[in-house]
Each structure stands twice: as C-alpha cells, then as structure tokens.
Amino acid sequence: MNARMNAPHREGGKLRRRRLDGVLLLDKSLGLSSNHALQAARRLYNAEKAGHTGTLDPLATGLLPLCFGEATKFSGELLNADKRYVATVQLGVTTDTADAEGAVLERRPVTVDRSDVKAAMAHFVGEIDQVPPMYSALKRDGKPLYEYARAGIEVERTSRRVSIHELRLLDSDHDLVDGRFVFEVRCSKGTYVRTLAADIGDRLGCGAHLAALRRTGIGALDVAQAHSLATLEGLPAEARDALLLPPDSLLASLAEARLDAADAARLRHGQAVRWAGEEGTRLRVYDAEHGFIGVCQQVADGWLQPLRLVAGA
C-alpha cells in the first residue's frame, strides 16, 4: 500500500483525522446508501479525506471501491470502466421504479419457461438503446429525474446507447421458481440493469422488475477482493490498514511508463518530459524504483504531460 499514515491523536480534546492514501474495496450491504457506506468507512479509518468511485443504489449490494487521500485524485478512472452484476428478476410484476422498491403498477400471469427467457435475453446482447428510468439521478433542467417522478411528472427522456458485452442465465438446471430468474451481465458505463430487467419482461409479454442486484466487478477489480463493514469493524487498526490497495490499483486499464531518475524528477515538478508514444494516450507513470508518480498524457511532438500527480511522490 502506497500510503502515508500518521497515528491519530487528539488536539483540544478532538480526535484529529489522519492522512491516509489508499483504496478500500468495500462489499456494500443491502439498504445502505453509498454515502453512508463511505462515511462509515471513513470513520473506521479515521481518514482525513475520502471519496467513492461512483454510487451503488441502496437496493444493490457488492463492490464499492472507496478512496482515501491521494487516491481520490484517480477515483474518476472507474466511471468509464465496464461493470459486472448478478441480477435477480421477478417476472409478472411491473413497478414504477423498475425495481423492488417501487409501487406495483401491474401484475400479469407468467407462462414462459427458461428457454423463452434465454431467447429474450439474446436480443439484448451487443449495443442497445436504453431509455433511462424516471427514478434516476440524471438531470433535466438542473433537477434530478427522480424529483419529477416523486411529483408525479413524467418527462421525455432521450434513449442512450450502451453495450451489453455478456449476458447469461444462471442456475440453468432449474425451472423458474415463483417467476424468478437470475442473470449475470457485463456492461458498459451508463447501463441501467433495472431497465434491462424491465425490457426483458416486456419482450416476454409478462413484464418484470429487478428484485435484487449485486455488483461483482468494475474493470479489473473483483468483489472477491472486497470486505464488508462488519468485517472491518472486527479488525484491529493495523490489520484494517493492511487491506488497503495503493492508489494506482484504480488505473489497471492504463498502459505503464517507467522513467529514469532525471525525467521522474522533472515530472514531479510538473514539467513535461520526452516520451515516444501515440498522441492522446494516457499513461500511469512510475520512477525507476516503481514509485508511482501519477497519470500523464502523451501530447504532440513527443512530450508526456502530467495530468494528475501524487502529492509528495
């Protein structure tokens, strides 16, 4: 872990937060908002600065990477990464939010089997157009769509192009139980899995909503590496700190550049250095001892320009 950690101490009777750099892979529990999870983790680590890499609905569980200190500079890197989910779908019931938290709009009989579900799902693999749900944080005229929805107002939404890279039915040896099935999906940013569930239900003719959702991966990060708040609370401080990943763990999708001592020193002072590469490429940059310096971009005429650097690198 590339982290600078000062033991916490009290000033004027108040506990002073410590400077801490690293990434916590949290396995978020059901019913907890992303912000509540972040604040709980921040208190556990007594961290001075913290942020998340994109929210996960209270209904959803699973992987929520949290950033402390210098890692917050790179939190946006995961926003564009592919996501992986395991979703439980309830057929025959539609809701106003397309998930289990919404009010029931309609109930219809379910007369389909697993082969019908597989055939319907096949139509949603690849690039598809999705209409964002009204109960979402997308904004219209500066106001989130969910505020319109709560006021009983439905506004027109423009469909968005998303990519469903993989979509497969799980528990394939069992029949549908109470009209439910489970699928695993790997998708691009901006994909609404509850919209996907509802659209599959529409195609089957009986309607559906998302009953449960678990995020299992973001880019190269996997929920198998994640830890719950309950687990973290039961650990001593040193063991908890040892679970943090370095800030550059968020940057696995970027190619790596290794600089000699002279160029590393120039870059740390915010100066561009010579580097042969394709213009526009972003790189994670290290010194000769593999000390992480930051993220840079290849610009015209063979120069590597710093974008975000680790303080004190």
Give an overview in words.
This is tRNA pseudouridine synthase B. It catalyses: uridine(55) in tRNA = pseudouridine(55) in tRNA. Responsible for synthesis of pseudouridine from uracil-55 in the psi GC loop of transfer RNAs. Residues 256-310 form the tRNA pseudouridine synthase II TruB subfamily 1 C-terminal domain. Its EC number is 5.4.99.25. There is one protein chain. With 313 residues, the chain is of the alpha+beta class. It has three domains: 10-81 and 222-249, Pseudouridine synthase, CATH 3.30.2350; 84-218, Pseudouridine synthase; 254-309, Archaeosine Trna-guanine Transglycosylase, Chain: A, domain 4 (Roll), CATH 2.30.130.10. Helix content is 18%, strand content 34%. It has seven helices and 20 strands. It has helices spanning 34-45, 114-122, 145-150, 193-204, 229-233, 237-241, 261-268; strands at residues 10-11, 14-15, 22-28, 50-52, 60-68, 83-91, 93-95, 104-107, 126-130, 139-140, 143-144, 160-169, 180-187, 208-218, 221-222, 255-258, 273-274, 282-286, 292-299, 303-309. Strands 3, 4, 5, 6, 9, 12, 13, 14 and 15 form a nine-stranded mixed sheet that branches. Strand 14 and strand 15 form a beta hairpin. The longest helix is centred in the first third of the chain and has 12 residues, at 34-45. The chain is globular. Residues 1-9 have low confidence and may be disordered.
Write the layout of secondary structure elements.
Layout: E1 10-11, E2 14-15, E3 22-28, H1 34-45, E4 50-52, E5 60-68, E6 83-91, E7 93-95, E8 104-107, H2 114-122, E9 126-130, E10 139-140, E11 143-144, H3 145-150, E12 160-169, E13 180-187, H4 193-204, E14 208-218, E15 221-222, H5 229-233, H6 237-241, E16 255-258, H7 261-268, E17 273-274, E18 282-286, E19 292-299, E20 303-309
Parallel strand pairs: 5-14, 16-18
Antiparallel strand pairs: 1-2, 3-5, 4-5, 6-13, 6-14, 7-8, 9-12, 10-11, 12-13, 14-15, 17-20, 18-19, 19-20
Domain Pseudouridine synthase II N-terminal: 42-193
GO biological process, one term: mRNA pseudouridine synthesis
Domain tRNA pseudouridine synthase II TruB subfamily 1 C-terminal: 256-310
